[in-house]
Each structure stands twice: as C-alpha cells, then as structure tokens.
Amino acid sequence: MNTPETAPSLALKLATILEEVDALVESGAHLDLGSMRRIFTSHRVMVLPSVKNHHEIDVVIDGAQYLRVTAIVEFTMMDGASGEQLSSRWVGKAIGAQEDARDLAVDRAMEDFFKKTFFLPDFAPITQ
Prior knowledge:
By secondary structure, the protein is of the alpha+beta class. 34% of the residues lie in helices and 35% in strands.
C-alpha cells in the first residue's frame, strides 16, 4: 500500500491515465464521460467542474426564441490520496432552448476539456 510519501504524484497519475486512454483509443474504443470517469476513479483522481462565469444572449432563429450561452468552466483534477490539485479553464458555447442552453454550454466545455487534454479524436458527446 502506498503511503502519502510513496504514492505517485498527480502528474504521474495523469500520465498513466493518458497511457490508458491512448491504449483504449488505439484498440478502437470510443470513450465517453462514463468511461473517463471510471478511468479517473481507478486512479483515485477526481475531476471537479466549477462554472466561473457565463454570458447569455437571447436570440431568435427562424422565429423561435433561443438562448446563446458562453460558459467559462474550471476543471480541477484532484488526487484523492494526496489532495494535490491541477486546474484549467475551458470555454463552452451553446445555443438552445432556454432551459437547456446553460447545461449544454457546460457539457461542451467538459467535452473540449477531455478531448484536448487527453488527445481524444472522437470523444462521445454528452447526451442529456
């Protein structure tokens, strides 16, 4: 069992996660939020999203009322063993129904975070 002094650093855990993700992609697996959550959990790393700011504009498209949302979301990856953290901010944009657009913008930021951080060519979209 690893003690806090001998446990792998967050950076090492993230490198291991990247290797696992790469092997899955190479094998033809299509990753989604659930599969990424399981991989992170297996290494005792949490991904905690937090909306830092958002901007909304009402728009009319073909006579229908929509909401255009831009959200700035901070993702903090936290090592459950050591408490070590790494954060980055991502922007998500969406146009949708008033009740869905905010969540969709956050989902888009999350998709972008996973795709670009872990080099995922075809991360499965988050469905609502």
